[in-house]
Amino acid sequence: MTQKIEVDIGELRQITSWLAAADIEFIEISRPGATVRLTMEQASCSEGVDASVQAALPVARAGQAGAPETSLNEQAVSVTAKSAGIFLTTHPARSTPLVNEGAHVKVGDVVGLLQIAQLCVPVVASADGVVMKLRVAHGTTVGYGTRLLELSPSA
Questions:
Q1: Helix (H) or strand (E) holding 69
Q2: Where is the Lipoyl-binding domain (predicted)?
Q3: Can you point out the beta strands (E) in 94-146?
Q4: I want to staple 59 with a disulfide (CB 3.0 to 4.6 A). Which of 12, 39, 49, 133 is the partner?
């Protein structure tokens, strides 16, 4: 038996505009019997397609969730959130930041925390390099795939 599920394109456009404004790249919405995944694409991916329509199209990518993203403009490696939560630059029991801009880090170094309820999950460097820019302020709520900081890879 097939169940008809209707989705209002206006609602999808509104949701994707909120995602873009919050710099959230991925969201999954579930209801009994249906799941919708929205993944924000870069505007340059499809020439000639209206950006609002392109952003509203669900896209599935296999095997890329854990891969570091490289910015074409800067050759920087983006460290992204692996889940939704509150990004912390310092541990709740300490006053010093885990990393500052200009700090040298190695693969696996803790560069931040994602607070999910009472749990703090470490955010780790995906490459050796220098922290170029913290893209998200301490205490900001982030979603899966949000770029948290930029690393300049070590040569």
A1: strand 69-70
A2: 94-151
A3: 104-105, 110-116, 119-124, 129-134, 140-142
A4: 39
